[in-house]
Amino acid sequence: MNMAMARPEALISVRGLTVDFGGPTILENVDLDIYRGEIVAIVGGSGTGKSVLMRSILGLVRCQSGTVEAFGTKITDLGSEERLENRWGVLFQQGALFSSLTVSQNVAVPMREYLDLPQPLLDALVCLKIELVGLEAADGAKYPSELSGGMTKRAALARALALDPDIVFLDEPTSGLDPISASAFDELVMVTHDLDTLREIVDRIVVIGDKRVLVEGDMAKMQRFDHPWVRNYFTGRRAHAAFGGASA
């Protein structure tokens, strides 16, 4: 076998995924693979099912048909005691911090659940994660109500990175936050509208529309793809501004 031609490991495989919530179909017969070592952005118009796809992968949304596999295990086969939360981190769009806990306590939640660490080491790791995302160590003592929008995102990101996960899922990560360096993550899946982020750090773009994956590939492929929404998003006035081109 020619190892140079070997495909990278698929950490996530989605096959024939259909979700309808008992009403209009949101996603229909969706296939998607996420490979080790890549940064993937899922984009699409409002209401096209981007976040539904992410939540389906996470097992938070029940699909009507199809399968989702993560690390070789079908999500639908997992029992309540056999979960994958310790292998991925999630940053939800609004942060979803526990309001009654400080930033440090929020970041410590997954560590306390999955790791058996002495308190001094746990405290040191929490401080490390907080500083990793650009917050000050003193911010760890603050409650979510005392944080700005950007600080809330950073705190939630610190919690998502608490267990050094294999995969990080980010829902609109740059809302209220400066662009995230690609070197901060090993594997990353993000739902975003931020063209600057797509340009700077993304390896592959997946466009959701018409209940399915319309196209996936690099920026050049997006700009060549003949679909009204894709063409407007990647070659319109907003795209020209983001990518340094002249607008009409």
Structure description:
It is built from eight helices and ten strands. It is of the alpha/beta class and 248 residues long. It is 30% helix and 23% strand. A hairpin with a 7-residue loop joins strand 1 (10-19) and strand 2 (27-35). It has a six-stranded mixed β-sheet with strand order 6-7-8-3-9-10. The protein has a four-stranded antiparallel β-sheet with strand order 2-1-4-5, with helices on one face. The radius of gyration is 19 Å and the shape is globular. Helix 7 (228-235) runs parallel beside helix 8 (237-243).
Classify the beta-strand content into a percent band.
Answer: 15-25%
Rounded to the nearest angstrom, the radius of gyration is 19 Å
**Helix-strand string:** EEEHEEEHHHEEHEEHHH
- Poorly predicted spans: 180-186, 240-248
Give the spatial strand order of the biggest sheet. Answer: 6-7-8-3-9-10
**Class from secondary-structure proportions:** alpha/beta
Give the quaternary arrangement of the chains: single chain
Topology, number of strands? 10
Largest sheet: 6 strands, mixed
Shape: globular
Mean pLDDT: 81
Helical content stands at 25-40%
Total number of helices = 8
The N- to C-terminal Cα distance equals 51 Å
In brief, what are we looking at here?
By secondary structure, this protein is an alpha/beta fold. The chain has helices spanning 50-57, 103-114, 119-132, 149-160, 195-201, 219-224, 228-235, 237-243; strands at 10-19, 27-35, 39-44, 65-70, 73-74, 88-91, 167-171, 188-191, 204-209, 212-217. Helices cover 30% and strands 23% of the residues.
